[in-house]
Amino acid sequence: xxxxxxxxxxxSQVGERxxxxxxxxxRANGAKLTILTVxxxxxxxxxxxxxxxxxxxxxxxxxxxxxxxxxxxEEMVRASGVDxxxxxxxxxHLSEAVHQTALAQGCDLIVMPAHERxxxxxxxxxxxxxxxxxxxxxxxxxxx
Length: 144
Description:
Elements lengths: L3 E6 L3 H17 L2 E8 L9 H31 L4 E7 L3 H12 L3 E5 L2 E4 L2 E4 L1 H9 L4 E4 L1
Parallel strand pairs: 1-2, 1-4, 2-3, 4-7
Antiparallel strand pairs: 5-6
């Protein structure tokens, strides 16, 4: 049914579960799996030198954590025998990066981990997931 599945992950438990579920779908369909890590560029709103140094170091630590998590997920997928690719992208908007990468890679299913947010109207799916659903012509499986 599906031949190429893409799963964006952010290193969170929700993202890791999405990769695990994407792996099961890929295995069941004999599909290839692409893991996508989207890093947001560092934006500095202050010119205070000490703050810039702290933010730069924090960004570096976050990037290194993502790389460790991604390598672990790649190894898990490869150990299962499923063909796996890992792609890193940088974009302010997760939905745009997922959409563009899925099209560029020829994916036919997006498995999207959704973080639930609590707002004035109660529990809702995060806005990046909603944006992806509104723009994607590919099927999107939203995991909650």
